[in-house]
Amino acid sequence: MFRSLLISIFCILLGNNTHASEDYILIENFKKASHNKIIFMRHALAPGNGDPSNFKIDDCSTQRNLDVNGIYQSEMIGEIFKKFQITFTKIFSSFWCRCKDTASFLKIGKFFTHKGLNSFYQGHVNRDETLAELNKLISKLQIIKGTYLMVTHYVVIQAFTGISLPSGGMVVYDMETKNSYHLKLND
């Protein structure tokens, strides 16, 4: 009972994004229209902004990481994917630890890191090169094979889709129409 209440509160908070466009799909309707789609997910809650000045991509202790709330948020989103039987052809993540941890705590399958999902927020990687790598990845995906999940950062999602998201928020990108819209976890 308490867990259901927490999930409901979490879903309500996640669904309230004042920067959101009006276009969205509810998670319970997504399965019917999931082919040829990418879900871009912003990493779960990781307190702070940016990364420390001693940032190293291969050292999680030098990065902003998920806190207990972020871990819980990842687990709950994974449970929602399972509840609605949403499966992914392939799951990708940024090299940043908070993205890899989000993908891991979803507990929905193996994931692969890709440099086209890395954050260019503080100039750790080049924006144009990162977006070019993302476009190359998307162009190589087999459209007929289904649904993909990409766990990444605010700046990447906003630059690619034009949509701003809170931590744990998701955008659906249609590979055929090139349209993007929010994936809402609640009505």
Characterise this structure.
With 187 residues, this protein is of the alpha/beta class. It has a single domain (2-184), classed as Phosphoglycerate mutase-like (Rossmann fold), CATH 3.40.50.1240. Helix content is 35%, strand content 17%. It has a seven-stranded mixed β-sheet. Mean pLDDT is 88; it is low at 1-21.
Tell me the series of helices and strands, N- to C-terminal.
Answer: HEHEHEHEHEHEE
Question: How is the biggest beta sheet arranged?
Answer: 7 strands, mixed
The whole-number mean of residue pLDDT values reads 88
* CATH-assigned fold name: Rossmann fold
Task: State the main characteristics.
disordered N terminus, seven-stranded mixed beta sheet, 187 residues
Structure summary:
This protein has 187 residues and is an alpha/beta fold.
How would you summarize the topology of this molecule?
Elements: H1 2-15, E1 24-26, H2 27-30, E2 37-42, H3 68-83, E3 90-93, H4 97-106, E4 111-113, H5 127-140, E5 147-152, H6 154-161, E6 170-174, E7 180-184
Parallel strand pairs: 1-7, 2-5, 3-4, 3-5
Antiparallel strand pairs: 2-6, 6-7
Helix pairs in contact: 3-4
